């Protein structure tokens, strides 16, 4: 009987619990013993591993966050930490590991691969910056949260003829900002991939008012050179010349919380089940991602070595639509 463990690592993403549920139940359906690792790689090193049954993962797919928990672990970055993690699994007879997470998590999975331990990754991060998946678990829910914020800000902005900055997460990737700006009809989007000066934002706001708009919404990615706070500070510093102030709203970790939507629950379920199929075939050292509308395996060495590019055609489209 095969024994397989699953862990979640890095930033939580809506849909992680659905992936855990799918991994566990798909494994049990094959007659395997399934185990859960608490607190990510930290728990793996400490041996915080326990067997999971069908009912242990019941009623979790609609919940945000991760029931297994996640924690930073600098020790796992060392060779000694990795060996201890493998030792913890060997002591329980665990033959393979499923790692649910983003870039850092899959870098850890690749480290286990380099130590000859069977591992399969599942693509999960709200940033959508992971090579090997067109869209990752959590992105759709996070995007809809940002979109709701834009819609709400537009209501009050129109009532008072004001301009607002909305900062969204995404680290150094502008995907969330760009897609929410397009879907929300923002007047401008500021992303890390394209350097934007404060005066360009000022001009966008003036264009909106000259066009007769009652509001101006600027969506800003947190990793942009001029984030929401810096742009707001610039306008405050030049208020006398500009004649207006910018009010900044930062969504922050609000985007990670809350219940996953239907898309993320289904995506997580399909990728989790696909990871188990991959283990059954004995094909390890890969990331299960969603490419061209199907679960696809990409070697972990490629995943950690390559950077996922942002589709700049969408940025050009956003510029066309913001008039």
How would you describe the overall organization of this protein?
It is elongated and about 70 Å long. The chain is an alpha/beta fold and about 325 residues long. The mean pLDDT is about 95. The protein is built from 12 helices and 11 strands. Helix 6 (about 175-185) runs parallel beside helix 12 (about 310-320). It folds into 2 domains: about 5-140 and about 260-305, Rossmann fold, CATH 3.40.50.450; about 140-255, Phosphofructokinase domain (Rossmann fold, 3-Layer(aba) Sandwich). It has a 7-stranded mixed β-sheet with strand order 3-2-1-4-5-10-11, with helices on both faces. A 4-stranded parallel β-sheet has the order 7-8-6-9, sandwiched between helices.
For the structure shown, list the relevant keywords.
single chain; 323 residues; alpha/beta; Rossmann fold; 2 domains; seven-stranded mixed β-sheet; four-stranded parallel β-sheet; 11 strands; ATP binding; ATP-dependent 6-phosphofructokinase; ATP-binding; allosteric enzyme
Strand residue content: 15-25%
Order of helices and strands: EHEHEHEHEHEHEHEHHEHEEHH
CATH architecture of the largest domain: 3-Layer(aba) Sandwich
Morphology call = elongated
| Mean pLDDT over all positions | 95
- Radius of gyration, Cα only, in angstroms? 22 Å
Q: Are there runs of 5+ residues with pLDDT below 50, and where? A: none
- Biggest sheet statistics: 7 strands, mixed
Total domains, how many?
Answer: 2
Distance between the termini: 62 Å
Fraction of residues in helix: 40-55%
Q: Give the spatial strand order of the biggest sheet.
A: 3-2-1-4-5-10-11
CATH class of the largest domain: Alpha Beta
* CATH fold node name of the largest domain: Rossmann fold
Q: Tally of extended strands?
A: 11
Coarse structural class: alpha/beta
Helix run count: 12
